[in-house]
Specification:
Largest sheet: 7 strands, parallel
Number of strands: 16
Structural class: alpha/beta
Radius of gyration: 20 Å
Order of helices and strands: EHEHEHEHEEEHEHEEHEEEHEEHEHH
Number of helices: 11
Distance between the termini: 32 Å
Length: 342
């Protein structure tokens, strides 16, 4: 296939690009090389890749970029949490409006396949288990409780702390910060496009992606990059809350494989797929694994918190495994050791 890859110069994008080329696809990359992601670093595309430097909000540029392609993998986005109200316009413009421009261009040129990089954050706090009321949507965490060290989200009916559960793609969307809201909006726009054009849209809800080349030392970096950066400075990783936050850490090469597989095989309708390892880990466990791999100081559990953070969000990725025959290849221990070496 001839594939347009937006955001192909980014962390996940470069790995998706490598996977596409390894699978024999022709690739055109569109990337704005935005300063808050690339920090002025140049991008040199591999031989044979058609690179277009520009923003997905530029209609003329996007119209040119989608010409003669068979599919679009849309990764370009502003990432992070967006915990300040002043962040809202940039998320809405970069992610919502940018996606709308891409979809409109695809409709005008009859590009039939979209693979969209979504995120676990669309679920908010996901699903919790109350000993009295069973599976429920967790209530919001209150700042007074967080200050007191009560980190578990409450049952919305009885206020008791909830247990954890894996989140399936049928869970209700409950975005709780600007980035999450923009990702949910992207999914809705993609569904609108599919209904209007008959095109196929696969929404890949990435969980905590890590691996070599992760961005570091920015407010939007993944927690693994932040921990690794601290350890390389000889400092202990600073673990927020009590370190018990559950996540599904999935290696970037596994994410790239899932993304390209969805592009190749999802040919009709709209479907969402969780992309996770299937083995939940705590943030504290990740910090310990990285400290051991780097032979650095032990993590420090700080009790600090960010109100927009989600306590637990872990994926049930069985749909991706059963429908697309995907499975992760990189074990957590191997991935942490590789991250420590790079």
């Amino acid at each position: 296939m001839h594939v347009l890859l937006t955001g192909g110069a980014g962390f996940i994008g470069r790995n998706v690009l490598d996977r596409l080329l390894a699978r024999g696809h022709a690739v055109r990359v569109l990337d704005s090389l935005r300063a808050d992601v690339h920090h002025g670093k140049a991008f040199t595309p591999p031989p044979g890749v058609d690179f277009r430097h520009g923003d997905v909000r530029d209609r003329k540029l996007v119209d040119e970029a989608v010409k003669d392609v068979d599919a679009v993998i849309h990764l370009a986005a502003k990432v992070g949490l967006g915990v300040d109200a002043n962040d809202l316009p940039d998320y809405a413009a970069s992610n919502d409006a940018g996606t709308a421009v891409v979809l409109a261009a695809m409709a005008r040129t009859n590009v039939p396949r979209l693979t969209l990089a979504s995120s676990m954050v669309v679920y908010g706090e996901g699903v919790g288990v109350c000993p009295e009321h069973g599976p429920v949507a967790p209530g919001p965490r209150r700042e007074a409780a967080l200050k007191a060290g009560a980190f578990e989200p409450p049952c919305p009916q009885c206020d008791r702390p909830l247990g954890t559960a894996l989140v399936t793609e049928s869970a209700a969307l409950d975005p709780r910060n600007a980035y999450a809201t923009s990702k949910a909006a992207q999914e809705f726009y993609a569904s609108n496009w599919s209904r209007l054009t008959g095109g196929a849209a696969a929404m890949l809800r990435y969980h905590n992606v890590y691996g070599p080349g992760m961005p570091a030392d920015t407010p939007y970096a993944g927690v693994a990059a932040i921990f690794t950066s601290a350890l390389r400075r000889g400092q202990p990783p600073q673990v927020f809350e009590d370190g018990g936050q559950r996540r599904d850490f999935v290696h970037v090469r596994d994410v790239a494989a899932a993304t390209v597989l969805a592009c190749e095989t999802h040919a009709s309708g709209v479907a969402a797929f969780n992309v996770g390892s299937g083995t939940p880990r705590t943030v504290g466990e990740m910090a310990l694994a990285l400290a051991a791999s780097l032979k650095g100081p032990s993590p420090v559990v700080t009790g600090r918190y960010r109100l927009g953070d989600v306590r637990h969000i872990t994926a049930d990725s069985s749909r991706l495994r059963s429908v697309l025959a995907w499975k992760p290849e990189v074990a957590f221990e191997d991935g942490m050791a590789e991250l420590a070496r790079t």
